[in-house]
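Notes to self after the call with IL:
- keep both proteins in one doc
- input above output, always
- annotate only the second one for now

Protein 1:
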Amino acid sequence: QVQLVESGGGSVQAGGSLKLSCKASTVINSSCKMGWYVQAPGKERDLVGSIFSRGGTPTYADSVKGRFTISRDIAKNTLDLQMNSLKTDDTGVYYCALDCTWIGGIRYWGQGTQVTVSS
């Protein structure tokens, strides 16, 4: 079973930047998707953005378009989330995910990393 380990969370003022990184423990099926989700306090876990494991063009939630960038490094087996122009509404626990549900598999989650954006 794959393990996903996130790092890079922390506290930052609005307008600042953070970079999150997710390290996968095994080779990942190229047809699966990898992505980042955020769960704000008392809210559902929502998709931030995703990309095919093999790479390509990421897809983003409207709320983060133009501010966040997902990158997949196959050689390092990592998935990064560069977050710029952070807003207080971006606060939450960010989870790395490997999503194979669309090809009949399951979804794997990392442990999450806290991002706190203050005004």
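Protein 2 (the one to annotate):
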Amino acid sequence: QLHLVESGGGLVQPGGSLRLSCAASGFTLDYYAVAWFRQAPGKEREGVSCITTTGDSTKYADSVKGRFTISSDNAKNTVYLQMNSLKPEDTAVYYCAAGDCSDYDGMDYWGKGTLVTVSS
């Protein structure tokens, strides 16, 4: 079976940091770009960041530029999202998905999400 599993979410104070992981099983991420999305209660899903298959191209939503960093470890078949200077408005369920960075609506595989709560 093909799975993406997110981990690393939790409760953090404003200004703090978390690192999310997205691990693939049953397939290799070598042939897929991987994106992180988030959805806050009552809001639409938002594309946060994406990294290409070769890892040489990344993109970020304006709301997280300069604070979040996406990276990949092909040997571990895992993509990471380092989140620094977290704000309460970053609170959401974070999902990873595999597909194409230019087609967020057409991602092939999705994880079930991990909850990030930024609160004092």
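Annotation: The chain has no helices and eleven strands. The chain has a mean pLDDT of 95.
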